[in-house]
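Reopening this one. Same input as before:
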Amino acid sequence: MWNDTNRELNDKLKIKMYKVFFQILAIALLITSGCGNCGSKGATNDNTKVKTTQVLTLGSFHFDFPNLDVVQTAEEDRIDVLLPEYQKEIELIVEKLSVFQPTIVVIELRAEYQSIIDSLYNEYLSGNYSLARREAMQIGFRIAKSMGLQKLYCADEWGDFTENIISLLDNEESEEYLAFVKSFETNADLTKEFHREHIFKTKGILAELIQINDEENIKKDLGDYLIGIFKYEYAPHDFTGVDFQTGRWFNRNLRIFRNIQRIEADPSDRILVIFGSAHLNILNWLFDCSPEYTLVKTNDFLKK
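Same output, byte for byte:
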């Protein structure tokens, strides 16, 4: 009885939501029908260009190799970015990116660490901090200092899971949880088969960055999140894997994008975003679609 009532309420709610949606859509169509130049990014109905903020996204491997991602790097395959040969290469990369002349630098650390980053950066400006291995410091701190910037912005965030995934992850002794973990480990191996090989050890950091910031490679990277655990079902035709990846990856990157939107910027600003390369498969798409930003090509700078 309760299930029938609950289903009926859900159906009524869906109908109401659809009605509201179509009302909004109708209003939008009425507004846009009188705007002959609407629909193209950067245009208005008086034929003037809407100025947007330029964004350069630098996708990177993690210089400190924390191995928190599904695809991990074995110790023998890592490099020490503090060695002189790599330090010289990082300085060259910073020099290339400086041509963009960023006025805002965004790094992959959560907002809760902003005060710590502020303190470390101030120490670095004073000559009292030796840069840690993280790309946020090795590239971010260096280029912010070279541009005379007073701070960097932390924009990383975790995603939010649906209730069914929260319940799943909270019940570690359940049969469903154990099956999920086993499948996650199996699917991690599957993902590795499709993952591109790193070349930083054989060809250097710059070559690696050029490879992972290639537009076609960024597009292919999203495919890693559409196989493996994404397709996992505990019961036939459920959406366990989809719901998990929605929170873990898609929702997370939308929140990161929102954090970047919160940074006060105007069309005269130029934003450099330094994040793990996998994030670009969503972030770049969001920047490219947004009417507020113009995404520039990273490799136009790295290849010069």
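So the earlier flakiness isn't reproducible anymore. For the record, The mean pLDDT is 86.
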